[in-house]
Design a protein that fits this description.
The complex is a heterodimer of chains A (273) and B (221).
Chain A lengths: L6 H5 L7 H21 L5 H27 L5 H23 L1 H4 L11 H29 L9 H28 L2 H16 L11 H7 L3 H13 L11 H26 L3
Helix pairs in contact in A: 2-6, 3-4, 3-6, 4-6, 4-7, 4-8, 4-10, 6-7, 7-8, 7-10, 7-11, 10-11
Chain B lengths: L1 E12 L2 E14 L4 E5 L6 H8 L7 E6 L19 H11 L6 H12 L14 H13 L5 E5 L7 H14 L4 E5 L3 H7 L2 E6 L2 E5 L2 H13 L1
Parallel strand pairs in B: 3-6, 3-7, 5-6
Antiparallel strand pairs in B: 1-2, 1-4, 7-8
Helix pairs in contact in B: 2-3, 3-4
Classes of the chains: A mainly alpha (273), B alpha/beta (221).
């Protein structure tokens, strides 16, 4: 029995941590745990996190790069597709990874300090960090190949990315709670995300959609984020009427609030195995 | 001191609301008292421990913890299978606010658990006895006023049982213990008071022997 009454224990006897400091300690601990599991899970797992989007983009560029350069004026094909894919991936990866945060961390709820919502928030933050790193890697790579990579409105790019991430987080919060309560919801959303890839303007500009259908097309909030991202990158980019960042921000606000509400309401039931 | 006041608990199952597991359990555990919890399988012993440990919330009623209570240790809970013993240990130290003296605690836990090289292997490769060792070492590393043990000692080998006995004895003068075990000897050794769970109600006995007697009578019929 080495340590049950060691000096460190005596010292901390009457020290009570505040709720905020407990939450902060939990977030840090989960962040490290998630990052370790993500980056060192298999043989050089971190390499794949960088390589996957590169391959994805190289393939798309091969297919559409030249067409885009001819059809869309004022943009460069490679960077155009890169913005589309990055904008979409930040929503999809954040939403899908944080959706599974609760199931992946069930064992940790043995400690009452750890709440389901903590695991979701931390996962979304880690996903943002990883995507930012692979985005930097990608854009720098394009720069070395001779593209003009510096966005003309850096602030707008950051705001658009944040708005996209927030809606990913909002969806993640909602879906993580919902799939624990009704598992079928998870399967349905997985199916819905697939066509969204094609409906979010990843490979074409919103202005390419005929005006008659554009109102319908613009119902999808992610289009607004991706198009705004391009406005931030290309000074000459001709953006379709009706694209509005506020719409996406509103969507993000609503989903985040709804998601948090679900976690508050059903928190106790999410802990159950 | 732990106050359990009119606690009701039932779970949501796949086909609607489940049966009541606890129906108005009421008792108060004074500081530094070792309590044995007895009752037949499915009587709600583990449920009650989860509620006291603060993992789950009662459907109705109130539980107050006026002291530091450990998490319920037992059955390999609280360990993440893909992470190594060391990584799990670091995680638990961090959430309990011991970022600064992490190295010291890590060394102590490693020494007490006696897992050898397995400490750096993923927990999913551990046997249930090894998991128990790690869990027990983990919970002893923190200064709780009450330790909750859900059969944590039942899977260990002889050496480990001896070690836990010594540890529990040392704890007895400064901390309390709430213990579930089907081993009568173990309960008699450590616990003075007893709670008998029967049909959703908790019956308090100042002497463990009385609790065991009531429990035995109920299963004899």
């Amino acid at each position: 029995m080495a340590f049950a009454d060691g000096p460190a224990n005596v010292q901390n006897r009457n020290f009570v941590r505040s709720p905020a400091s407990i939450t902060w300690a939990v977030w840090k601990a989960i962040f490290i745990r998630e990052a370790v599991a993500r980056l060192f899970a298999g043989r050089a797992a971190w390499v794949w996190i960088l390589v996957e989007p590169v391959v994805h983009l190289a393939f798309l560029n091969l297919l559409f790069g030249f067409i885009i350069q001819r059809v869309v004026s004022g943009v460069e094909g490679g960077l155009f597709i890169t913005t589309g894919v990055l904008g979409f991936l930040i929503v999809q990866n954040t939403a899908m990874r944080s959706k599974e945060a609760i199931t992946a961390n069930t064992a940790l709820f043995t400690y009452r300090q750890v709440l389901p919502v903590d695991t979701v928030l931390v996962r979304a933050a880690l996903e943002a960090l990883l995507l930012m790193m692979s985005a930097l890697f990608l854009v720098t790579g394009l720069g070395l190949l001779g593209s003009k990579i510096l966005p003309h409105d850096f602030l707008l790019v950051m705001v658009a990315l944040s708005a996209l991430w927030l809606s990913g987080l909002g969806l993640g919060l909602m879906l993580s709670a919902a799939t624990e309560l009704v598992p079928e919801i998870g399967k349905v959303t997985d199916m819905l995300f697939r066509p969204l890839y094609f409906l979010s303007g990843v490979m074409f500009p919103a202005s390419a959609i005929p005006p008659a259908y554009r109102d319908w097309f613009l119902v999808n909030p992610f289009v607004h984020g991706i198009e705004t991202l391009r406005v931030g990158f290309f000074p000459q980019y001709h953006v379709a009427d009706g694209v509005s960042l506020s719409y996406l921000l509103g969507f993000a606000l609503v989903t985040v609030c709804l998601g948090l509400a679900l976690h508050v309401r059903f928190g106790a039931r999410l802990v159950m195995e | 001191m732990i106050i359990v006041d009119e606690v009701y608990k039932r779970y949501q199952t796949d086909h609607g609301v489940g049966k009541w597991v606890l129906q108005g359990a009421t008792f108060t555990i004074p500081p530094k008292l070792n309590v044995g919890l007895v009752g037949r399988n499915g009587a709600g012993k583990s449920t009650l421990l989860r509620l006291i440990g603060g993992i789950d919330k009662p459907t109705r009623g109130r539980i107050e913890r006026r002291c530091r209570v450990s998490w319920p240790m037992g059955f390999g809970g609280g360990l993440q299978g893909v992470l190594t013993g060391r990584q799990n240990t670091k995680f638990v130290c961090r959430i309990h606010g011991h970022e600064q003296d992490l190295a010291d605690r890590l060394a102590n836990i490693q020494e007490f658990a006696e897992l050898g090289d397995a400490f750096d292997e993923p927990v999913k490769t551990y046997s249930s006895g090894m998991k128990s060792r790690l869990q027990f070492a983990l919970s002893l590393a923190f200064d709780f006023d009450v330790y909750i043990s859900d059969e944590v000692t039942s899977t260990g080998d002889e050496a480990f049982r001896k070690k836990t006995s010594e540890a529990f004895e040392k704890l007895a003068d400064r901390a309390g213990l709430i213990m579930v075990s089907h081993g009568e000897g173990l309960l008699r050794k450590f616990c003075t008071a007893g709670i008998w769970l029967h049909e959703g109600k908790a019956h308090w006995f100042d002497r463990l022997d009385d609790a065991l007697k009531a429990y035995k009578q109920s299963i004899a019929v």
